[in-house]
Amino acid sequence: MLKREIPSLGVTVSRLGFGAMRMPERDGKIERVEATRMIAHMFEAGVTYFDTAYPYHNGESEEMLAGALRRFPRERFFLADKLPFLEYKSEADYKAVTEEQFSRLGMDYIDFHLLHAMNAKRWKFFKEIGVPQYQQELKRQGRIRFAGFSFHDSPEALEQILNDQPDWDFVQIQLNYFDWASSLRSGELYNMLADRGIPIIVMEPLRGGMLASLPPYAQDIIATRLPGVTPASLAYRWVGSLPYVDVILTGASTIAQAKENTAVFEDFSPLTQKEYDVIDEVLAAIAAKPSVPCTGCRYCVSACPQGINIPQVFYIYNEQGKFDCDGTTHWRYLNEMKPQERAENCIECGACVSQCPQKIDIPEELKVARKTIGEACKRAAAAESK
Ligand code: SF4
Ligand code: SF4
């Protein structure tokens, strides 16, 4: 297993980490026999970094992961856990959640402690209620070893957090070859952390699985130009070839996926120039798919009397067009959007159109998006009922 020394923290970690957020499930609960086998496989293959969070698997993940790791010597692995963002009213609230987390884990200390899913708004709130000081207090007490945060926002928001508090031990960001230069601007996040010498943990190297199950037009490019190379291994090796990435999290859901992932890092080779060229071809093919040029500025949203989340509809529509991701589209439309925010509520009043700097014909594009998303949802529902 490829290892990585992090001099600023005085530890050596496996380059591959296991994220316990997509473990196998049955009837809405973690399928424990299979999940335990998967975690054991990871440990035995040399993975030493295990990541969980308060809300994963509806609160089951922390206890499940810690329970599966308990048979191994505590000093042989690093546990990462995250303080969730909740409607804390006072210091007592987030302290109580932390104690609940330690109780679920049944462990004395957390190695990598993260403030979960940080963004500009949450950082402001956390500062107001004293969370960063509390995290440092946990560190002084030895209950956590390293203090960091996972991040979902713009480079400007990251810069603000790093300026406010420069001494972070590490930061976790979403990074993969698609999002390097997408609207997420992950490349800028990576460069900012690298410039400041802050260790980097990467989540979503497969972009929620999308880069492993690319649509046929993209898979064909890889199969033709790089016979025998899987899309998943290509995506992992792209991240692994970045010099300042320390740990890459995999969210495997099956033993087969876990084995494929550990194999990449047991016998790791950086990408060749030809492989970078093929990834460029894949990106060009994805970019050529028609999409609505929405930048997500949200100027249209406040003008809409129906409360439609126009940029989110276009985001889901664009992702469907590029990745043929019926299941993800279905899930996003049902879970990330309230019923009143969906495209079907458009009354074609046109109030949003003049607000759009991109001059998008929003009512017309919403009609197309609604049809495409609706068809994807039907296919996903049919596939799920089989
Ligand atoms: S045209 Fe549709 S999306 Fe635009 S403001 Fe009217 S109801 Fe909202
Ligand atoms: S105003 Fe235009 S670009 Fe901005 S979010 Fe709305 S549709 Fe997208």
Automatic annotation (TrEMBL):
A Pfam family annotated for this UniProt entry: Aldo_ket_red
Organism domain of life: Bacteria
Keywords recorded for this protein, A-Z: Iron, Iron-sulfur, Metal-binding
Residue span, 4Fe-4S ferredoxin-type domain: 284-313, 337-365
Database matches in PANTHER family: D-THREO-ALDOSE 1-DEHYDROGENASE, OXIDOREDUCTASE
Protein's name according to its UniProt entry: Aldo/keto reductase
Species in which this protein is naturally found: Solibaculum intestinale
